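Section 3.1: Structural characterization of target chains.
Under the original work plan, the team committed to producing a structural model for every single-chain target entering the pipeline before any wet-lab resources were allocated. The record below documents one such target. The sequence was received from the expression subgroup and is listed exactly as submitted; it comprises 231 residues.
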Amino acid sequence: MVQGQYKGEDFFQGEGHRNDTLKSVGEDMTLNVEKSKSTYHNLKIFLQPQIVTFFVIIFATFINGPSYPYIGNLIWLPLGAMLLCFLLFDFKVVLAALMATYFSDVWFHSAPMMVTQDTILQHITAVMTPIIAIASMRFFRLSNFFDGGKVVFQHLLFLAILTALFNTIISFFINSYIASKDAAMEQINATVFIKNYLIGDLLGCLVVLFFAALIVVPAIKYFSPKSVPIN
């Protein structure tokens, strides 16, 4: 009788241990699924701004047309597109902007695939000038572009002017340096360069920023209010 009792206790203990094991396996599987979902969510949050930035700059460069880096364009939309992406997604999309600048030159401006010191300087300049302008706006506490749902046009205008000014000045020194190294290249006319760059950059920034502020951002806020970090 006692022996039968022991066997019964062993049976129930075995069943209990088996149930605990199954429960532990189930919890581990649930934890792994949650980790996979979390990883996918984090990857999605990281990649979405990069992809949007890349294609926005590519599209802006495509519709802008030919590039005249040593003379200047009447309007330069890629600078405005880059500025907009930095405003929407902050500076975490720098790499995507740099890649978009490089591939835009290769695809639309017949630039060589081989990266040289000169092209690296030009691409870094194109990416850094909007960042410097935004950082300056934040330093002077003028980075509030929306007030109660209304666009603060003065701040957008000042940001566009600041970006165009920085890009014109830095591009002038960079391109003058590049032109001075090549004896076959005609030297840059400072007056024409600064005038064309300043007007082209300013118009490019204003067109993209005001189009975004009046149409794109309100549409995003309406359909997906949490997707727009701009303030």
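The CA atoms of residues 145 and 196 lie 27 Å apart.
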